[in-house]
Each structure stands twice: as structure tokens, then as C-alpha cells.
Amino acid sequence: MSLLSVAAVTKHNGGVMANREISFDVAPGELVGVIGPNGAGKSTLFDVITGFQRPEAGRIRFDGRDVTGLRPDRISHLGVARTFQKLRPFAGMTVIENVMVGAFQKTSDVAAARATAQGVLDAVGLGERAETHARGLSTGQRKRLELARALATRPRLLLLDEVTGGVDQATVPGLIRLVRELHATGLALIVIEHNMRVIMDISQRVVALQLGQVIADGPPAEIMRDRRVIDAYLGETWKA
Amino acid sequence: MIMIFLYGALATAWNIIAGYCGQISLGQAVFFGVGAYTSSLLFKLTGLTPWAGMIAGVSLAVIVSQMVGYPVFRLRGHYFAIATIAVGEIMQALIVNWDAIGGARGVFLPIKRPDSFVNFQFHQSKAFYYYIALGFLLLALGVTRLIERSRRGYFFRAIREDQDAAAALGVNVAREKLRALAISAALTAMGGTFYAQYLLFIDPESVFPLSLSILICLVAVLGGVGTLWGPVLGAAVLVPLQEGTRVMLGGTGKALDLLIYGALIVAISVFQPGGLMALFTGSRTAGSAR
């Protein structure tokens, strides 16, 4: 049985149809990549799944439960966590305080939340920066912070919006390794990513979007050969 | 000193909703007025001790805060602040035109002798008011401290920093904002009762004005928003300054005292956005309430 099931979801943004009857499933523990050119509707899809936008049509089921149109905090409590494309740290709080906000979902005890947060920070490699202010972090570190914050809610499905976007090349391998490690713990992930090599490398399955529609859904190797995907997105160089 | 304590406590109450939770309320006078009127009217009409009246006022202020907060919290940032101003103005207009409770003439509280704790009136010595005001301030600070150290405090600050990110982490943003406003309203209403018992006369002009809401905000901003001691520090500076400029300059020109006041606020926001507290902590980060 699938963990997440998106069925015929449609959502307009202004006059543009950002999501047009999108359907796909995610199995427990699966790592699904989502690709598509800018404006294909990837971030809107994330917003719809996590309750930040309500779809006009279609249903979203998580763990067998209809979650369509639930508030973001309710969906988070059910076990779906996300990061944002535009990083949104709580800038005026320290790194560990940021993560504690997530940890408080499962406990109301401050000491327990602090312990959980420290554990997660250690796991993402930010353990030593726990007491610095979030605004003092580099972009790569902020990505890790967003990840840590989401992980502290102990999710079963994690949606990552552009893990490697906007960070320097030297930081990318570390972040990718981190995503792999998370996946290895049994966590299901949906990853939006622009770096083709990365997405094809880490995903078990790839969903390709164009103009709000799913144009391909399958294993990476298949997607790379798909005529429509190549035309829409990968361009000439990939035809070789 | 009594006024420093009172304004310190009111600013501390404002600090909970605005400093920690980031919702700039400019309608605090609503809760102040509700507290003052509730206890005063109950005292005058039924003879109920103002202490019980204070509890009634607090309850009513909390109810009002939830009724007002529910729709108004749908607005964000500046729009929220403007809406709270509107709520305050509406409330004042309402009371002014409500003849059954004195209308624009206000309420004179019956003077009881001899001094008694039950009647919350002390004509022999101001010392009692002093201690009650101090107790009030300590209560407000204690509540703030408690929030600061609890899960709720983290949620409030997360909402201040980025409410969408907070929601994504499972924080029920709407509920937490209403809680913050309720706590703030309750404390502010207590201040209203105290004020009424101290002056024994209230009218819409004295307990519901926008200028009171703004003063409360200024005190906290001056001292340091989002810090425990900031509002107290602000009150300790601003209240004497207000009294002093009024004595020295008031009456001569029009509102010279307010001019100095304004200049001070401008100076603070330009040179020390974190408030006076930031001078001690050495950081400019403490007051990032925007």
C-alpha cells in the first residue's frame, strides 16, 4: 500500500494552471525525485500536499487517510515534513532553538526537546553550531538546519524542495550523502531537484512535470530516455 | 514609581503578544478599559469587591480578545496592527455612546472609608498602591518568564520569525496567537482595574484612548522588544521623562513634551532597534519583532 497517494490534483495560481490532474504514489521508504522546468508546478505541488494551498480538485491521501485541505500543522502532525525552496530559518533564534520548535511536536518538555534537537543536529552535522544564531549560518548550513528542523518532527515522509539549489559545488556532495543516509533509515522522501546528475543518481523513481502535468513517471534510467522529458527539459545534450 | 510599575507591567503584557509572538497589537487599551470598567461598574452598582471585579474584568477581556482575535489574526504584519487600532477606536466610540454605563461622562467610583483592602482603596497612604503595583509588575514578569521557558515561548517566537515555517513544523499558529493575546489581555485588564482603583474616576478618554495603546507599545520598544526586562527598563526611562517634560514644558507650547518623546523614539529606532536592552546584551538581534 502506498504511503502517499496524489489523485488528479488540480490547482490554479492566478490564471495559470499550476497543477493539472496530477497523480502519483509514494511507497513507504521510497525516494521519489520530482523534476521539471521552472514553472512546471513542483513547488505548488508541495504546497498542496502539505496543506499550504488547497487544491480545487483531486484528493491527497496519506497513510490511508484523506488529508486534502487539512491545515499545515495538522498534516505535519500526521507525519509529513517539508523544507522550503526559499530558506526560512527562524533568524532571531539559535540553531538549536530552531530545531526544538520541530521537536516540540512530540513532547512538551523543554529538556527532552533540547536533547532531541541536539541529536538531530549531530546527525546533520550541525552539532557544533547549536548555540549560534541562525542568521550566522552559511547557505549550506541553513539547508542542513531546515532539514534538521523538519526531521525533529519525526516524519514518515519528507518533502525536500531543492536540496542543492543555491549552494556552492563543494557543499553538494555532503548534502547528497545526508539525503542518502536519511533514506537509508527508512524515511520516504520526495525531492525536487534541478541538478540532473544528482536526481538521477539518488532517486528510485522520478516524476517529470511540465506545465503542471505529469509527463513521465518511472525509474531514472527510463526517464532519461523518455522522448518528451528530453524535449521538455533535458535538452539537446542529453540525446547522445 | 507606581506609574513606572503600572506601565512596566502593561508593556510587559504587550511584550507577550508583540515582542514574543510578533503580533503588533495597538489595541491594548481595549483590554485595559474593559478591565477598568468591569470592576468599577460592579463595585459601584453591586458593591462587589474590586478584587472579584478584577477577575470578572480579566475574564471579560479574555473573551473580548478571543472574539476580536479570531477575525483579526487572519491579517498579517502591518495590516494586523492597523486592524487593532480600528478595534480600539470602535470600542471607545461604543463606550462613549453607552449612556447606561456613564457614556462620555465616565464613572466615579464611590469613595469608601476607612481604607480597606477589600475595597481596594487606600486614602491614608499610597504605600499600598505601591506594593500592589509592584506585585502586578512581578506577576507580569513571572508570567513572561514562565512562557519564555516553556514550549509555548518557543512557539510564540517561531511564529514571530516565520509563521509559515512554524506551521510546517506542526505549530497551530492561529491557536497560539489567540493564547498569546488572551494572556496579554488578561494582564492588561488587571492593570485597568488597578488604575480605576487608584484614580477612582474613569472615562473613555482615560482608559480607552489610542494614545494609551501606543504609549504601552513605545515603552516596550524603547526598553527592548522580546526581552524579559526591556519593558520595565523602558517604563523606568519613559515615565519619568513624560512627567518631567510635562512639568517643565507642558502648558507653554503645544505638546513640546510629545516632541521630545517622538525624537526619542526616532533615535531609538535608528541607532538601537533592539531597544535599551541591546545596550547591555551588546546585540542588536534581540528586538527583531518585525
What is the largest interface, and how many residues per chain? A-B, 32 and 24 residues
Instruction: Quote the beta fraction of chain A.
Output: 15-25%
- The residue fraction in helices of chain A comes out at 25-40%
For the termini of chain B, the CA-CA separation is 31 Å
Low-pLDDT residue intervals, each spanning 5 or more residues of chain B: 283-290
Strands ordered across the widest β-sheet of chain A = 6-7-8-3-9-10
Structural class of chain B: mainly alpha
Along the chain, the helix and strand elements of chain A come as EEEHEEHEHHHEHEHEEHH
Distance between termini of chain A? Answer: 38 Å
Write up this protein:
- The complex is a heterodimer of chains A (240) and B (290).
- Chain A is an alpha/beta fold.
- Chain A is 36% helix and 25% strand.
- Chain A has a six-stranded mixed beta sheet, sandwiched between helices. In chain A, strands 2-1-4-5 form a four-stranded antiparallel beta sheet, covered by helices on one side.
- In chain A, helix 3 (95-103) crosses helix 4 (110-124).
- Chain B is mostly helical and 290 residues long.
- Chain B has one domain.
- Chain B has helices spanning 2-20, 28-46, 50-72, 77-96, 127-148, 151-161, 163-168, 173-199, 204-207, 210-223, 230-249, 256-271, 277-281; strands spanning 107-108, 201-202.
- In chain B, strands 1-2 form a two-stranded antiparallel ribbon.
- In chain B, helix 1 (2-20) packs antiparallel against helix 8 (173-199).
- Chain B starts with a helix and ends in a 9-residue tail after the last helix.
- The model of chain B is unreliable at 283-290 (pLDDT under 50).
- The interface between A and B is medium-sized, with 32 and 24 residues.
